[in-house]
Amino acid sequence: MTADVPTSHPPMPARKRDKRHLAIRHWAEAERPRERLLERGSEALSDAELLAIFLRTGARGVSAIDLARDLIRHFGSLKNLMNATPTQLCALHGVKTARAATLLAVSELSRRILMERAREGTLLNSPIAVRTFLTEHIGLLIGGKPREVFVCTYLDARHKLLACEESAQGSLTRVAVYPREIVRRAIELNAAALIVAHNHLSGGAEPSAADHTT
Predict the structure, then answer these.
(1) Among 111, 140, 163, which residue terminates a domain?
(2) Do 70 and 90 share a domain, yes or no?
(3) CA–CA separation, 152 vs 124, rounded Å?
(4) Which domain holds residue 166?
(5) Between 1 and which of 183, 186, 190, 199 could a Cys-Cys bridge form, CB atoms 3.0 to 4.6 Å apart?
(6) Is the pLDDT of residue 15 over 80?
(7) Sheet holding 161-169, edge to edge
(8) How many CB atoms lie within 10 A of CB 21?
(9) What residue stretches are annotated with the MPN domain (predicted)?
(10) For 32, how many CA atoms within 13 A lie in the half-sphere containing its CB?
(11) Tell me, what's the pLDDT at 174?
């Protein structure tokens, strides 16, 4: 799994105020993201416009869309932004605790929707199915985390997905895992099989020397 959220970021650049940086409420109604979404559908909006709807307002000298663009540019991608920590978010211009909480809630809802979709009839009964699941689902969940994360995927007797949960978070180079807790959870779920995975902040997908010895 890759993990490409930087541990530190350069400050977001200051913007010069111009007509497009006015508060969105001063824009023509047809140009406002919320109105465009209701009239034309979410597909018509850019990533920044969709994010601006959650932000609701901008910051001094910038509109909500400008702030959204700055956040995406600052972290390098939407995935990295959604994996940012509260401390990383609150350190940025225009983001305080309430706005950081909103972004964290959006990230968690996205994760839960992804798991709900994966749970609907997903059978992990072959190496190809497992590889696809790890790449398309687990990779999206932990690939951008700023620390090592250990994830457990619990399956029933037919190898149908029961739950996929983050079992532990560690540091930049290691994560401590307690088998007793994992077994306890497997018993609670009446799981018959288990798949485990964790990320490497280096971006490498191959097992490290520590992985082979633990």
Answers:
(1) 111
(2) yes
(3) 14
(4) 121-199
(5) 199
(6) no
(7) 161-169, 149-155, 193-198
(8) 15
(9) 123-214
(10) 14
(11) 74
Bridge partners of residue 194, in order along the sequence: 154
Task: For residue range 133-150, list pLDDT tens digits in order.
Answer: 887 777 766 766 767 888
Report whether 103 contacts 81 (CB < 8 A): yes
Residues in the chain: 214
Residue 40 sits in the same domain as residue 97: yes
Is residue 100 domain-shared with residue 166, that is, in the same domain? no
The total domain count for the chain is 2
Q: pLDDT at residue 90 above 90?
A: yes
Please compute the mean of the pLDDT values over residues 20-30 and round it to a whole number.
Answer: 65
Is residue 19's pLDDT more than 70? Answer: no
Residue 103 lies in a domain: yes
**Statement to judge: residues 74 and 135 lie in one domain:** no
What pTM, to 2 d.p., does this model score? Answer: 0.62
- Residue whose token pair is 């995406």: 72
Q: Is residue 176 part of a domain?
A: yes
Residue 212 pLDDT: 56
At 13, the pLDDT band (50, 70, 90 cuts) reads low
Q: How far apart are CA 203 and CA 35, in angstroms?
A: 40
pLDDT interval class at 189 (50, 70, 90)? very high
Angle in degrees, 0-180, between the axes of helices 97-119 and 47-55, rounded to the nearest 10: 120
Would you say residue 169 lies in a domain?
yes
Single residue among 56, 88, 111 that ends a domain in this structure:
111
Contact 53, 41 (CB under 8 A): no
Residue 99 phi/psi, 5-degree rounding, is: -70, -40
